[in-house]
Amino acid sequence: MLRIHFTDADLARTRVAAAPDPLWEITFSLHRFQTRQGRWAYADWHRRALAALSEKGLDRALPRRLLPLFPRAAYFPDFLNPAEASLGLSAGLAAIVDTPPSRVRDELSRLAREPTGAPLWLTGLAEKENREELAAALKDYYNAAIAPYDDQIRARLDSDRHTRCRALLHGGVERLLGSFGTMMRWRAPVLHVEYPVDRDLHLGGRGLLLVPSYFCWRTPVALSDPLLPQVLVYPLHPLPAAEAVGNRSERPLAVLLGRTRAIVLRSTATGATTGELARAAGISASAASQHTTALRDAGLISTRRNAASVLHTLTPLGASLLRMGRPAGL
Predict the structure, then answer these.
(1) pTM (2 d.p.)
(2) Which domains does the chain have, with CATH numbers?
(3) Buried b (16+ CB within 10 A) or exposed e, 275-291
(4) Which of 140, 180, 165 is nearest to 57 (CA)?
């Protein structure tokens, strides 16, 4: 069990990541190659990713260079998941390359003491040129195995963010922390997280970044070093975008509006951009724009510009239609 201790300052600084973290997705996707647990949920990705890696000549690098560095174990090096990755893959890889050699040696030494062990060649990562080679390999892996699934990953993240935003809107940060079901339980001022080891983490006013991950399976993961900026990565179950919206509650609306338009309408419940609606429904941005125009003309949604994008929200009539279309008990 991981117990994360919050102060009032930590609650004020707790937030949910706005986009997938590419290095965490690399980490957990590599874990998916190391176990059959949850394989059914990623079966299509697993098959296609292996084929793509083989096509690009990366299949040999997978077991030799990447899996030993990202073991599916209680510990793997923190420097592989820097905070800079929230700015994108390039920023995250640059941070790995720029990691102080002393830190690399310390973390790899700890990895070598774990039951999984570590091959001796990993010690060479203390040299910058070897970390540059690693960064290039990670970029190639990402482009082959993860980038083709970017829309699907972002659709799942958008759906999850809507859930978290509703919790935050209706009950503040404490309601948000209590919205994760059995994987974590909020008992103020401590968040109890299902975890492979017993551990206490005191945030000390730094706050917590909650990072949803498509490839994370079952239990959340935190950084090992308590002195680093703290994140908690939690799993998104990789359901198809259309299923993630909730099929049972979609059926009455689908009869009236059509399946895709019903998904678009429901996805505006907490506000959504055209791009988010497109990902949720699995359609192009231009098609999503056509659906929002029809829904707006019917008085079900309203649209306003928000910086460089437009934000779609429900009107009272649209909200009423959603409530009427929800089966009893849901």
Answers:
(1) 0.76
(2) 2-17+151-235 (no CATH), 22-149 (no CATH), 241-325 (1.10.10.10)
(3) ebbbbbbebeeebbbeb
(4) 140
CA quadruple 57, 61, 62, 64: dihedral sign: positive
- First-residue to last-residue Cα distance in the chain: 32
Provide the pLDDT for residue 307: 66
pLDDT at 44: 87
SS3 string of 237-300?
CCCCHHHHCCHHHHHHHHHHHCHHHHHHHHHCCCCEEHHHHHHHHCCCHHHHHHHHHHHHHCCC
Round to whole Å and give the CA distance between 213 and 210.
Answer: 10
| Amino acid identity, position 292 | T
pLDDT of residue 196: 85
**DSSP 8-state code for residue 66:** I
Amino acid identity, residue 69? Answer: L
- Cβ pair 74, 196 in contact under 8 A: yes
| Residue numbers in the chain where pLDDT is lower than 50 | 238-249, 327-330
Alpha carbon of 272 to those of 109, 188, 301: distances in Å? 46, 31, 11
Secondary structure of residue 315 in the 3-state scheme: coil
